[in-house]
């Protein structure tokens, strides 16, 4: 029998910048999304970009990209690239994203949107102009695409929680508990912008606002750097979490190890946040709880297929937090996957993100989360840093 | 066969003030402690005191007290009372405790020690003078006597956590989520001093400091009263959590519904606290987690027989939070109870508290937690209120 | 003020035989029940009986019994004893219970009712005759009195599960995993009747039938004794689980270490059972799950304040096992205890058992579980042993 | 920059038969494995085969197969196919697998290996002959490739459990609880061979023997069909779990709805099994517990990234089941995936299965699980059916 007829779907050429952890995750997303979801466009993995020629060529072959580039400007200039996917550290986001938008490309930018509010504002402005030309700009808060989170959002929107009283979020990791863990790029302000705050805090601020459906209006914050100096990595340490400590040389840690902040949502609900890389035994414990007058929701990323819901309108004798296994065909994104009860994993959030972006590009609808959403998160992070510097004083988040 | 020989143990006459929820719990403690533990003194339930003659007489009969009094001064004056156990709302603690101490009695005082720092300071001074006369004064932070908490304290003391990085504590309840729940005494500042802060926050501040083995040195805080006005209770509402809403009359809620605060421990560890009565579905969720360089501990009062421990010195492939069922005969207090695996409950903390107090009285050792410990908690609560009033600014806790 | 007026409630004199683990637990029940529940009769702890004069006198004093006896016939003969509470090993149950019933006393007999079906049948006959004289005979399946179990029974009775399909029960302990644990009385057939089967299996057979509301009609079984010989205890080992291994002498283990059996309920539901003392790490893991067409229930004695319920009539997207904290005032037995969220423990089952028995004696209603219920369990255990001897063949349980 | 150099790795052409649920899962495995793992051969998705020309062509395009065939003999005959991956119902496994082996192809065959022992024996014989020619034949017990299961096997092999006492396994689903769910192919003996037994029981028998490292030597079993008649599906119902009920026509369910069996392992350990599709609320609850003299392990497929381990050699006060998050780089298969704490899902088992098969083909090592392992499972299932027919009598499993 013959080869299946070539699909007649139009292609959407993707060019990706960066090929470390996020690059691998996004690659898995692009490789899979068209095979699982029925999309109006066919994502084509056109080219990948990185500075080291050998490494980027190896990454292209490994992850399935058709071509490799060493200059992101060349990537943007390619005719076969309609969408630029930015997976680099935060210090380069603004420059690449703005250039890509100005070149007429759609953009997906990893979180946090930028390392400063000023950069994020410039990106939003570029996205606004591009939007008028029909381009889409999305920021990569991938956890919104966890089916349990997406289902939780639906439940909040449907009024299952009633008036919101509390949002309680923490993101606990432990990968730098050891003081001898080396000084990788994520621990240096010039590359990462901030530490646990920008890396983990950005996720939980976005999720809190997304799930609540309302912004934070002010915060009070404490931050801390427990280990002020660490061994320098053996070689270059710009491409991942890892890196071997190399010899006696040490350098200063210039970002926060942990950030605690509390605040008020627009509705008057209280919110508490904790982001840390020093919670021994907690590997990826992004935990969220929302309490409302009619019910509560709870989630833990370490058990990402589960959502816990308490219906406070039920008789007290029969009420309690129920563990919803978010794997039913009717749950968000699940129609494309396996029968009920078969777990998804972390990387599926990138497949779902790719799906939602492709749909938005095709329908020319406003993407979610937009660069404006990313800017709002950036403003919260800036308010957190300001409060931490000003003796924790309550600091409004500009609207 | 004849009646068992009367014990030759000297009696310790107990007089209790108050007979609501705490009175019932303390009664169960006094009734049970000598039957389960082998004590040097025989606690005798000499007299109970309350303002309503009929009610206090009924309480005496129900709970097994030999006599009833309507004036706490008369109770203190009784020759058969050597220990005064104060279970009233916080506004009367200082007066009763100081009078009892001055009358030469030992004192057990429910938490919070007082409704203000000034009262607590006076109580500490009275306890100091009484101590010179050999009297014991203890404050009733009963959760220290949960076997899992006591075992956790041992593990921290033994260095199982190493350098402490985080203390994370919350106490979540939901009994006033309904805006029509009536304005009981616990919601009125003149009786309760504060709301969730004094009731729940006092417990978690004490536990955080106890488990860490070090004090909080400063805090930043947010408080909130979500429901500002509630129906007045039908009758008197001074005797418990309960009360039926009665008619259209409403009154102002004059305490906090929720309090969020963060701070620094003396060692530099970060601490976060949340106390609320608005967490729908959380009934008695006092949760504690401590993260150190060598390990972590976690506890939830809703599963009070369990302690979770992560040993960070183990190989990562085999490490994880282990659920220790704290029911082994070698665990604190367990030698007196049931075989391994048989759960204890809430009220056992009062039995254990009675045991520790009787042992301290007999041995004339310093009781723990002392009135000074109670004062320290009071100072933290005062700093929390000050910070909340001053726009969350970081507020030192006086040493 | 004067002593509270003596209660005018009629007394119910209790005489207890045995003072080991079960004796202590029953004592705590009798000591507490009248203080917590409002009963029509006042239980009086009249006398306790044991063979060793010094030991029984010490037990009387420790546990609060007014008198001590060394001959159970003398105990039964006492005028101040109206209820005989039998806490001895199973080999003496029949003789004592029948004598007590014939002497006109009410009887509470620890489980298993007897060591053989024949004994149990004689006890049922004695109870039947006594019932005509207004006496009450109850068997001590205390776990029925766990609030979560009692609430589960209500839910099944209310039809929340619909047609029953599966009952899945296991009772896992680990106290004899060590082959050097000594040969205590519970490991000797002449005293204990059987091993895990009678000790643990009796509980789970009773609970399965109680919760389902229907009997097992047949079983297929496997039993095993993993460790066939153990060191003899140092001294007498008749008074508890414990005992120190003493020297080189060894004796044969003559009971089962573990029993696995499956069967059919009267309705056609399938049931599976496992009782073992060799499940390392499981201390008291009595687990039950029932699956019906409309819902499911799950329980674990190691978390005895919780009941898990899945409502299969809800939309699949929002359904899941909910954790009901069975501590609401409206839950069975809870009206007498603490506010919502405050945990009860193992020993409360004995307080509740005492309450239900006192109420049955006062109202002269049929007690539950009756001796006939105990006999039915005994018949199941006998069928299990018969099946295990006959190569697992399916063995009917006589009606 | 130019396209990355074509890889020089030799290709391994894969031809897959079947494109329903298992076909989709295997496709995801083949599509991903070479992108994530560094393999010596490059899997090429050469052709897919199904009976319906349009459907198979659509499946080829959707899942990324280069060609489509409608006759499995044609698929086997293709020069670009070196490995035949069989994802059809069990009734066709033997014919296809034997033909493929005789044609010189490697074979991966979904579980259960066959619908009868005779078929399975013929397949093992074919595999034995093929092995002499250097061909590999593997059976698809994919759950062995869950990292937690693979890690558990390592721990057992390393002696962490000591002498094994208990294996306790259940596989609970609920997709046919509704009596109106239609009569799909999985409910008809002629296609599926058996019901819950072959579908779910095969998995848990394989896992029990794999983890224990020893075979079952005999079983006693009960099976049941709760709902004996169901509506016929609207159209053809051969391609999945699903199917819409169509009209009034009904047909008999000819397989078991549930199977309970117990048995003995070669070492004398006891094992219990339950497979059911009638456990309301349990979606994919494959649960395993092993208890040994030195420790215990527990696993639940609904939380597949976790393994629970109790180390019984630790002091009792600090011991308990620890939750190991099996996402460390050092855990099996994890070196190729994400940083610690990032969850994998169900489909990753197929990626890992593909990896292990490719490695075995390249190294010409004995694959695991082999067809002989599949035959052994088949013999257990046959013994289960024989015991169930013979009144549960204990039935040896032939070696």
Automatic annotation (TrEMBL), chains A, B, C, D:
<dbReference type="GO" id="GO:0016491">
    <property type="term" value="F:oxidoreductase activity"/>
</dbReference>
<keyword id="KW-0560">Oxidoreductase</keyword>
<dbReference type="GO" id="GO:0000166">
    <property type="term" value="F:nucleotide binding"/>
</dbReference>
<feature type="domain" description="Gfo/Idh/MocA-like oxidoreductase N-terminal">
    <location>
        <begin position="13"/>
        <end position="133"/>
    </location>
</feature>
<dbReference type="Pfam" id="PF01408">
    <property type="entry name" value="GFO_IDH_MocA"/>
</dbReference>
<dbReference type="Pfam" id="PF22725">
    <property type="entry name" value="GFO_IDH_MocA_C3"/>
</dbReference>
<dbReference type="InterPro" id="IPR000683">
    <property type="entry name" value="Gfo/Idh/MocA-like_OxRdtase_N"/>
</dbReference>
<dbReference type="InterPro" id="IPR050463">
    <property type="entry name" value="Gfo/Idh/MocA_oxidrdct_glycsds"/>
</dbReference>
<feature type="domain" description="GFO/IDH/MocA-like oxidoreductase">
    <location>
        <begin position="150"/>
        <end position="297"/>
    </location>
</feature>
<protein>
    <submittedName>
        <fullName>Oxidoreductase</fullName>
    </submittedName>
</protein>
<dbReference type="InterPro" id="IPR055170">
    <property type="entry name" value="GFO_IDH_MocA-like_dom"/>
</dbReference>
<dbReference type="InterPro" id="IPR036291">
    <property type="entry name" value="NAD(P)-bd_dom_sf"/>
</dbReference>
């Amino acid at each position: 029998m013959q080869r299946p007829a070539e699909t007649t779907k139009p292609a959407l050429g993707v060019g990706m910048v960066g090929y470390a952890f996020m690059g691998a995750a996004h690659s898995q997303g692009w490789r899979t999304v068209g095979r699982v979801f029925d999309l109006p466009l066919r994502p084509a993995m056109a080219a990948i970009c990185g500075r080291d020629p050998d490494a980027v060529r190896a990454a292209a072959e490994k992850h399935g990209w058709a071509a490799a580039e060493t200059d992101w400007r060349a990537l943007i200039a390619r005719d076969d690239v309609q969408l630029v996917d930015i997976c680099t550290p935060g210090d380069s986001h603004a420059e690449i994203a703005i250039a890509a938008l100005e070149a007429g490309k759609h953009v997906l930018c990893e979180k946090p949107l930028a390392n400063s509010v000023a950069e994020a504002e410039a990106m939003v402005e570029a996205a606004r102009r591009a939007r008028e030309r029909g381009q889409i700009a999305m920021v990569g808060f991938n956890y919104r695409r966890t089916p349990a989170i997406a289902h939780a959002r639906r439940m909040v929107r449907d009024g299952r929680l009633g008036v919101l009283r509390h949002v309680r979020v923490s993101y606990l990791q432990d990968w730098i508990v050891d003081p001898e863990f080396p000084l990788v790029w994520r621990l240096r302000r010039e590359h990462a912008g901030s530490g646990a705050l920008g890396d983990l805090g950005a996720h939980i601020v976005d999720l809190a606002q997304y799930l609540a459906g309302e912004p934070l209006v002010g915060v009070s914050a404490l931050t801390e750097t427990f280990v002020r100096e660490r061994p320098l990595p053996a070689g270059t340490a710009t491409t991942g979490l890892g890196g071997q400590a190399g010899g006696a040389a040490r350098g200063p840690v210039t970002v926060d190890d942990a950030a605690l902040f509390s605040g008020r949502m627009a509705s008057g609900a209280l919110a508490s946040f904790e982001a840390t890389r020093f919670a021994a035994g907690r590997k990826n414990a992004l935990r969220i709880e929302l309490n409302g007058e009619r019910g509560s929701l709870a989630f833990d990323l370490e058990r990402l297929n589960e959502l816990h819901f308490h219906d406070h309108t039920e008789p007290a004798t029969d009420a309690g937090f129920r563990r919803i296994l978010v794997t039913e065909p009717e749950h968000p994104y699940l129609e494309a996957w396996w029968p009920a009860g078969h777990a998804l994993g972390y990387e599926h959030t990138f497949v779902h993100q790719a799906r939602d972006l492709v749909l938005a590009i095709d329908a020319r609808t406003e993407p979610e989360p937009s660069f404006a959403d990313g800017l709002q998160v950036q403003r919260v992070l800036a308010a957190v840093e300001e409060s931490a510097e000003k003796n924790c004083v309550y600091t409004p988040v500009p609207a």
